[in-house]
Amino acid sequence: MKRPTTLLRDDATLSISDAGDGLAVVFQHGLGGSEAQVAQYFPAGAGLRRITLECRGHGGSALGRSRPFSFQMFADDVLAAADQAGLERFVAAGVSMGAGIALRIACRHPDRVAGLVLVRPAWTFGKAPANMQPIAEVAGLILDHGPDKARALFAQSDTAVRLYREAPDNLASLLGYFDRPDAMAFAQVLADIAADGPGVSARDAEALDIPALVIGNAMDAVHPLSAAYTLAAATPNAVFADISPKALDSARHFAELHAEITAFLHAHPNFRSLIPS
Predict the structure, then answer these.
(1) Which residues contact 135 (CB under 8 A, 6 or more apart)?
(2) What span, in angstroms and rounded, lies between the C-alpha atoms of 31 and 246?
């Protein structure tokens, strides 16, 4: 069966990856990420169907003209992709911004979500958390000065010096924003999302009656371990996993990440009814 590779939403054509068969997992990328990022984060193996919508301005998806960019916009797009894929219920998952999108969908549409996987969440229950300040700073510099001058200014900033010392993996990701061919246009996405939040409360998370896996790691200033712990503590049926920092050992980080996700998806009895016979 040939599956759609695009989704038409208002004024934007959005790119979809839909691969595999079995338990349906809608897994979303982080801010500035794409399908390629999710392919790195999602465990390979049989028995899983992974659907990823590249959010507006990410990967092969158009920016469109709608503004501002928001978690509500991105979550609504993802839900439309799930509808197009014929998914009545699925596991909602994501990394960083994608984790916030997954959480919003689970809280706003509990009848559609059978389970939740939140990887390195950057948001909890408010807008513009302090850990998003470096991204907001990068966005502001690009919008004010253009990417070349902005990169030079950021390299001399206290933020860059701090991240070089405490979270080099975060610094590398931030520097990548200056090198994008669409850096000026994408800076508005960065600014809007850094100032936003999933739009859910601790009470919303407490009402979730589904199995959940929340994964965090240390040495990450943009995705603090405390955010993962807060979400796991607020969600009644959540399992919390603290894995090796990506900044210290990338291979070990991804091996542990894949093992945690695989065990959760394959072992939980609640998901068996979602697997096509």
Answers:
(1) 31, 174, 177, 190, 193, 194, 222
(2) 17
The distance of Cα 25 from the centroid of its chain, to the nearest Å, equals 13
State the pairing for strand pair 113-119/90-95: parallel
Give the pLDDT confidence of 1-28 residue by residue, as tens digits. 568 799 998 889 999 999 999 999 999 9
> In one letter, which amino acid is 211?
P
Confidence of residue 275 (pLDDT cuts 50, 70, 90): confident
DSSP string for 150-219: HHHHHHTSHHHHHHHHH-HHHHHHHHHHHH-TTHHHHHHHHHHHHT------HHHHHT--S-EEEEEESS
Residue 28 and residue 94 in contact, taking contact as beta carbons nearer than 8 Å: yes
User: What are the angstrom distances between the C-alpha of 255 and each of 1, 33, 71, 249?
Assistant: 32, 20, 29, 10
Determine if the peptide bond prior to 245 is cis (ω within 30°).
no
Distance, CA of 257 to CA of 277 (rounded, Å): 28
* 184-219 residue pLDDT tens: 999 999 999 999 999 999 999 999 999 999 999 998
Which residue in the block uniquely carries the two structure tokens 């998952």?
Answer: 93
